[in-house]
Amino acid sequence: MKKTILALTALCAAIALHAQASFDIELKKVGAPIQPTMYGIFFEDINFAADGGLYAELVKNRSFEFPYALQGWKAFGRVEIREDGPFDRCPHYARLMDPGHGAKQTGLDNEGFFGIGVEAGKDYNFSVWARVPEGGEGSIRVELVNTSSNGENQFFAQEQVSISGREWKKYTAVLKPGVTDPKATLRIFLDGKRSTVDLEHVSLMPGDAIAGIYRRDLAQALADLHPGIFRFPGGCIVEGTDLDTRYNWKNSVGPVENRPLNENRWEYTFPYRFFPDYFQSYGLGFYEFFLLSEMIGSEPLPILSCGLACQFQNDDPSAHVPVDELQPYIQDALDLIEFANGNIDTKWGALRAEMGHPEPFNLKFMGIGNEQWGKTFPEHLAPFVEALKREHPEIKLVGSAGPYPEGEDFDYLWPEMKRLGADLVDEHYYRPEEWFLSQGARYDSYDRKGPKVFAGEFACHGTGRKYNHFHASLLEAALMTGIERNADIVHMATYAPLFAHVEGWQWRPDLIWYDNLRSMRTASWYVQQLYGLYKGENVLKLTMGGVPVTGAEGQNGLFASAVKDGGCIYVKVANTSESAQSLSFNFTGLKKKDPGVKALKRIVFTSDRLYEDNTLDEPEAFKPVEEAFSGEGQTVGAVVPAMSFNVFVFEKE
Ligand code: AHR
Question: Is pTM beyond 0.85 here?
Answer without folding.
Answer: yes
